[in-house]
Amino acid sequence: MESYLKIVFISLFSLILYIYAGYPLVLFIAGLFKRKSKIENESDLPSVALIISVHNEYKIIRDKIENSLQLDYPQNKLRIVVASDGSDDGTIDIIREYAARNVVLKAFEKRSGKSATLNRALVGLEDDIVVFSDANAFYRKDAIRKLACNFKDPEVGCVVGNLTYIDSESNVGKGESLYWRYEAFLNRLESRIKSVLVATGTIFAIRRELYHPVCADVANDFQIPADIASQGFGVVYEREAVATEKVSTFFTEEFKRKYRIIIRGLTGFSYLRKNSCGKRRIFQFISRKLLRWWIGPILPVLFAVNLFLVNESLFLGLFVFQTLFYLLALIGYITGGEPKQSKIFYIPFYFVMVNLAAFSAIVTYISGKRFSVWDKAETTRNINISHFQRHDLEIVSKKESSSPSPDEKWRNKFEKIT
């Protein structure tokens, strides 16, 4: 019996190692010596429609439009389209104030969800490139230019931008910021083979003629890249196309957000298998997403099996490590409001929180429940626009500084190996 338990434990532990280290290694090897071309002459820049999806964004829509109007892109080649999904809080009135400044309003009275709204908003557009954004995502001035430059390569059909966070002082915020740095790391590796799995819903661009209507139950930032890949075009990542958001403040908000994302992701996997998106995409989805979501159910099994193997020193050490890890996560939850909380607490807490959300999402998905309408996290709308402007200036000053910051040193090391 003990030998079988060892096999189970080693198999599950090895699976977790593959998810976090093995898959990136596979991508690194597959992407060796790959490079991509960009537009260098401004006259080659394509025409762009920036689609901003909104539902009751009265608090933030004015700042978003102002941010969009200040983007460094030829005015005669950039059109801003705001697609309102049943807004009834005054959002539409604010958008109409900008009609004379090349801001187009597409207002739909009945709320039907983001995907259905995008399907209707893109009808009649003739721009070369479509960029998708949300109301609470603020772009660095050169973001669209950086996205557009990648379409010089005729094989590229979709370009995924780089999402960063500000005001991430809580353990939820710090954990989410760390999570997105890891996601960006995977995006960069996948980009070498022109096969980034998922887009960042707040900032990604596609060739307009490649757009197919998206399903209501499948996240658009998953389905659209999958559709484009199935048409034989590449999906790449542009780290310098930066969008910034305010992170969720409360544990409950972030838990619900992850919970819904994973349910829609599982729905997306069913779509992926049914629509012949290619064996490589299915392999990537299983390795990057599906297996990671199943860590939620795996962890309690791993802990329980380990409990029966503590008579050996190696397994005793692993059991002590797991117990300590969960205790640190508990402390991280209890002291989540501390602004200077150490990584030793917020990393375990965030890891456990995400996997609890995954566990709940899998149970919900099996029960048959789906989501087509998205409820936003309200604390991500309680912002001061000066925070984003300051963040933008900090990025510029880092570029101009002769002595790199710790974050830049990490990036430089990463670029050397990729």
Provide a descriptive summary of the structure in words:
52% of the residues lie in helices and 14% in strands. It has 418 residues and is an alpha/beta fold. Among the domains are: 38-249, Spore Coat Polysaccharide Biosynthesis Protein SpsA, Chain A; 386-417, no CATH class. The chain has an 8-stranded mixed sheet with strand order 3-2-1-4-7-6-8-5, with helices on both faces. Helix 1 (2-30) packs antiparallel against helix 10, helix 8 (251-274) packs across helix 12 and helix 11 crosses helix 12 (343-367). The longest helix has 29 residues, at 2-30.
Describe, in short, the structure shown.
It contains 14 helices and 8 strands. The protein has 418 residues and is an alpha/beta fold. It has an 8-stranded mixed sheet, with helices on both faces.
Shape field: globular
Q: pLDDT average, as an integer?
A: 84
> Low-confidence runs (pLDDT<50, min 5 residues)?
393-418
Structure summary, number of beta strands: 8
Q: Name the strands of the widest sheet in spatial order.
A: 3-2-1-4-7-6-8-5
Distance between the termini: 45 Å
Q: Hey, roughly how much beta strand do the residues contain?
A: 5-15%
- Radius of gyration computed on alpha carbons: 22 Å
CATH superfamily of one domain: Spore Coat Polysaccharide Biosynthesis Protein SpsA, Chain A
Q: Helix content range of the residues, please?
A: 40-55%
The profile of the biggest β sheet is: 8 strands, mixed
CATH architecture descriptor name of one domain: Alpha-Beta Complex
Q: Output the number of helix runs.
A: 14
CATH third-tier fold name of one domain: Spore Coat Polysaccharide Biosynthesis Protein SpsA, Chain A
Look at the structure and give the CATH class of one domain: Alpha Beta
